[in-house]
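The pair is set out directly below:
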Amino acid sequence: MINPRKLVYVTAGILAFLIVIFLAQYYGLFQSISYMFGDLGTANTLAIVNGVATAMLAIVATMNGIEAKKVRSELVKPRLALEPTYYEYDTKTGEIIGFNCLNLVNGGIVARDVEIDFSCKGKTSFLYASSIGTNDRIQIWSGQSSELGGDITVAVKYKNMYNKSLHEVLSINIDSVNAAKRKFAPVYSTYKA
C-alpha cells in the first residue's frame, strides 16, 4: 500500500517536471540545446544515454532497498492474538457457552518488555512480562465466563528484536458474538513444548 504522503510528493514531483518541460518547450530551450549539442557524435550520445540509464538504475535500487526494509520490519514483528481456553459447556445442548481462561499468544518473533492492560466490565488489570517467545502463551485472565461482561479489550505495548516500541489493541466482543448467534469454536494447539 502506498503511503498517502509519499503519493503527494510523487504527484507534485511529476507535475513540476511536466511544468518545467512545458516551459522549456514554450521558451525554445530545447531548440537552443539541440544547437549546442548538435555535433556531439555517437560516442558522446551513448555516454549520455548510459549516464541516464545508470541514474535510473540507482533510483530503482534505492526504491528496492526501501521496500526491503519495510519487509524486514514486518518479519521481525511479533504476531499477538487472544486465545480462549477451558470452555464452559451447556449441559443440555453440549454447546460451548463461554470460557474460563484467556491467554495472550505470540505466533511471531520474540516480544520483549511486554506491558499488558486487560480490561473487562470497566475494570483494568495491569500485567507485565519480560518477554513472550514464539508460540508462548501468557495467561492474562482466569475465572467464570460471567465475570467477563460483554467486551474484552487487551492493550499490549512491547518492543521487537530491534528495540522498536510497538502497540496493539486486541479485543473480543462477546455481545456481538451472541447477537449474531455465533457459537464459540474450540481451538486446539498442535504445538508441543
